[in-house]
Amino acid sequence: MHAPAKHRSFTQLIEFEIEPQQQSALVSALSRQTERLAQHHSGFLSASIQASEDGRRVLNYLQWQTREAGEAAFQAFESGEQDFWQLIRAHQAKTVTFGSFQVLHSLERSPDHGLHCTLVG
Question: Which segments of the protein form a coiled coil according to its record (predicted)?
Fold first, then answer.
């Protein structure tokens, strides 16, 4: 399924598998790095960092206006003040999984509690 180029957004999902004692430090480091990416790269839409209850996984979700914006930011992530690979080593990540996705449908609740659906395609 392909969306018209003008309506596409791009999502990067990065999942870390770590030892539970590393989770808090990794979340803090990802939070700082994600804020830097958001401040210094155009095309940023949103981000979240999620932690599993068992302490073994962290999910970093970044959404960009275009694939190109996301890829440019990630290149900076790889070579920044604390590069991405140093982050992985410092927090003893056992596994890092990358996923890239086009957003084709989204649903969100507005302040008035209504549901707003966006279909792309």
Answer: none
Burial annotation 24-41 (CB, 10 A radius, 16+ → b, else e) = eebbebbeebbebbeeeb
- Tell me, what amino acid is at 39? Q
Mean pLDDT of the region 61-87: 79
Select from 89, 41, 83 the least CA-distant residue to 65. 41
The answer to whether 99 and 12 are in contact (CB under 8 A) is yes
Q: SS3 of 70, please?
A: helix
Quote the mean pLDDT of the chain: 81
> Based on the number of CB atoms within 10 Å of its own CB, is 43 exposed (0-12), middle (13-18) or buried (19 or more)?
middle
**Strand bridging mode 95-102 / 10-17:** antiparallel
Supply the pTM of this predicted model. 0.75
- In words, the CATH class of domain 7-119 is alpha beta
